[in-house]
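Posted in: Structural Biology > Protein-Ligand Complexes

Title: Requesting predicted complex, alpha-D-galactopyranose in pocket

I'd be grateful if someone could produce the 3D structure tokens for the following input. Sequence and ligand are given below.
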Amino acid sequence: MSSPSAVKQEVFGKMSDGREVKIFTLTNQNGLEARVTEYGAILVSMKTPDKVGKSADITHGYDDLAGWLTNTNYFGATIGRFGNRIKDGKFTLDGKPYTLATNNDPSGLPCHLHGGIKGFDKVLWSGKPTAENGVQFTYVSKDGEEGYPGNLTVKVTYTLTGDNELKWEACATTDAPTILNLVHHTYWNLSGDPGTSINDHVLMLAAPNYLPTDAGLIPTGVIAPVAGTPLDFTKPTVIGERVDADFEALAFSGGYDHAWVFEKGTGVRLAARVKDPKSGRVMEISTDQPAIQFYGGNFLAGTVAGKGGVKYARRSALCLETEGFPDSPNKPSFPSPVLRPGETYRHVMIHKFTAEQPSSIPSESIT
Ligand code: GLA
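-- Reply #1 --
Done. Output follows.
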């Protein structure tokens, strides 16, 4: 176990209102380095070694705080109160209707996305090092903020372990009934070269089902099997093999951008495994959540200049967002997103980083 002093703390810059923003650097004995900031409780960068030990940052983002303040793609962010989409920005809780901002409109159909206009990714959290080579961020969201009820206290902790795991753990309490779906939204390109496509990455999702959506990317309410569809990643499969297949769910979102549903169960279990065959880097994600959104970076358009001035092209990164079900506030058959006073919301997401030699690629994934 590392002492708190192992966590390096620096000033990252200032918010437009003058408030100071800190950045923290976590390292371990294997050469991994994670940088996290109080702005948006964002993972700013993640450096991991490839199969020959060469380290590279494998995340999209910006070089400085000024860049991060323009982050409309949710790079690296902690998202709340409700990650993913809510139909028409409306829901009813205990008989009372609520209206949220509609800040997204796939196919011209408005919805609430990722917490609204100024979600948790765009606010200043308060960070402090933990005794376990981590940083805990706290944010108090006031009753009525972005239209959500209840004063909500949220804590998000990033921990870098000696086992090459980056843990993102969230918990929250409220003083009035509310809805919650906190999400971690890093964009990964395991090659370390953001100028390349993630279509050559090999993905496994430990999920037999997915949530079909309408053209507005709102789940229909059906939980459908992935078997026989281009969304079946139960065996490791090259992402690009079927991303442009003639399949309604892919057409709606211009590629992969869906919630996959795990077998019912409890506890933290393996959710996803992604490998870049070129660098040998592997990332495994484990979670206690019921679903994972795999977003293949379809909306990146080569317009945003990020780290080193690189313009992030379509499908140059992927997101794997463990979560509750999208639009669950409007779907009584989905797991409930309601948090009540006296209850504690908890969400564990563990990223484990390794690197493999090419010979250890599973044979079914070589095409
Ligand atoms: C999520 C959604 C995508 C897109 C991105 C942000 O992952 O599923 O549709 O909105 O966030 O651009």
